[in-house]
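As a warm-up, study this chain.
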Amino acid sequence: MVDPSALATILQAAELSPADTVIEVGPGLGALTAALASAAGRVIAVEVDPSFAELLRRRFQGDQRVAVVEGDILRLPPAELLGQAGTRAPYKLVANLPYNVATATVRHFQGGMPPPSLLVVTVQREVARAMTAAPGAMSLLSVMVQLYGEVELVRELPPESFYPAPKVASGIVKIRSRIQPAVVPEAPAAFLALVQAGFTAPRKQLRNGLSRGLGTSPAEAEDWLARGGIDSHRRAETLTLQEWERLYRTRRP
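Now compare it with the structure written out below.
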């Protein structure tokens, strides 16, 4: 990231203090790492590329605020990362996420133990918009992210904010973790399995998506929706989390 105003926006959104521990994913050359170290007490920079990891070790040699961990973030549980750096929760995730693992990384941390108290991540613009979508434009990703956090699109960034410039625009997303999932706190995985089934055919009526995703007949899916008080002609993208919860709790016969 080469845009100073974008770095300032990330730092402001992250609400950092010297008492904070931050995990950063994909630090690259360390521009954001340096900015985070100036504001937080501890930065754990996780880099999968050995050459970049070595560069970061040299750059931050002697800086006790920065710990460089070489590895695949999706194979490193949050508790293990914190332990390697000699610290513990609470912590925040602040990162310009590699586009190819951005969604998986957010899910890894939201579902990890312990989860971060706050996530401020830069992702591809379309992903940022999907994460923060309102009913009417929801997706499975929208529901997954909003189930675990209060989400805000902080700012969109042009490709020129980075060097080399990517071919797509980006967005800074802020996710404040919930104490417990917004709905169905006792069984979030089962709830998301239902939502995933509902989005099997997102452009079709909900009864058809549920029928295909759950292996039932359209008539059975329509009856289930009726018992949940949901119009079977609606599309999955229009449902709120609370409506998905009502459908989940209605269950199938």
